[in-house]
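Example record

The entry below shows one chain as it appears in the dataset: sequence first, then structure tokens.
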Amino acid sequence: MVKRTTKKYTVGIRIWINEEQGHFMGIGRVRLLEHIRETGSITNAAKAMKMSYRQAWQMVEDMNSRSDKPLVEKILGGKGGGGAKVTEAGEKAISLFYKLEQKIEQISNELSGLINL
């Protein structure tokens, strides 16, 4: 006779925020914004995420073009060199994403309790 164990299942959900023309933001882009905020640099943010500068820059450009206001602004070089900063709109986007994620996680946890196979 085979002993059966009770398995626990959970519902997992990933969040993407889409704009009319396509993908706007997901957790990867949020983390990119956070790294830019922390480092003041797209280059250093890309390195922290193990991606190319070109890929990070394209993601920033894509988010900026899909948003009503830029999420990241370049800081032109000078004595200390250039860089980048997350704008107020970018900070709002990060905050909104995590609020949505928290709400959806609550719903996901509730749904997980319904699974009994």
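Notes for this example: The longest strand covers residues 22-26. Residues 43 and 53 are 5 Å apart (CA to CA).
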